[in-house]
Amino acid sequence: MGRTSAEPVLRLRPRWRSPVIVFPALAAGPALLLAGVVEPSATALFSGFAATAVAARNLVILRRGVTEAWPDGLTNRLAGRQAEVAWEGVVRLVVVPTLFGRLVQAEERDGARISLAAPRSGLVMHSPGFGERLDELTRMPGGGRAPVPVHTPALGRIVVAYLVQTTLALAFVGAVIVALLT
Predict the structure, then answer these.
(1) The predicted structure's pLDDT at residue 139
(2) Ramachandran region of residue 143, left (φ > 0), alpha (ψ -120 to 50) or beta?
(3) pLDDT category of residue 4 using cuts at 50, 70 and 90
(4) Which of 122, 149, 151, 153 would give a disulfide with 157, using CB separation of 3.0 to 4.6 Å?
């Protein structure tokens, strides 16, 4: 992509949630791993490993993740990988419900998707003003290009995602309690 300016028009980074949420979420994985080693438990080991891996990835994204919008395209760095896509190649922005929040992906003409570092809304990290930042991002294409359309999942998919998230969260909390009490 040929840059038309030295600085991006929009630079988005994920931010920490409240420490009341972040620290217990980040401490749960290692605590479960320890509990699974002290009192051998496959459930505690698996849950602890998974929670630690997710927490480590989130820390990398928080530290290094950035989405930059330029008049000619997007540059995105997420957990060490960097991707660039011209606005002409972006078909739409897709809001994806995740285990504990939402993220945005840029869908290219060939169907490939790039998960953006921001805007995000999740348990550990978020972008203040998720909707406003997403609207701002859709209007970024320069050179008289039309705004990028946004696709959000149907209400049924959102409800199912939240039910699955709630079930998994309760199962995780149950695994922590069982690991600590036995």
Answers:
(1) 86
(2) left
(3) low
(4) 153
Task: Report strand pairing: 150-151 vs 90-98.
Answer: parallel
Q: Do 69 and 137 touch, CB atoms closer than 8 A?
A: yes
At 75-129, the pLDDT tens digits run: 999 877 899 999 999 999 999 887 777 889 999 999 999 999 999 887 777 788 8
Beta-sheet pairing, 101-108 with 10-12: unpaired
Nearest CA among 91, 28, 83 for reference residue 55 = 28
21 class by beta-carbon count within 10 Å (0-12 exposed, 13-18 middle, 19+ buried):
middle
Residue 149 and residue 92 in contact, taking contact as beta carbons nearer than 8 Å: yes
**Neighbouring C-beta atoms of residue 50, cutoff 10 Å:** 13
* Segment (H or E) for 19: helix 19-38
Other beta carbons within 10 angstroms of residue 178's beta carbon come to 14
Contacts of 64 (CB under 8 A, 6+ apart): 77, 78, 79, 80
Domain 10-181 is in which class? Answer: mainly beta
133-161 burial, b if ≥16 CB within 10 A, otherwise e? bbeebbebbeeeeeebeeeeeeeeeeeeb
Domain boundaries, the chain: 10-181
Q: Which DSSP helix (H) or strand (E) runs through 98? A: strand 90-98
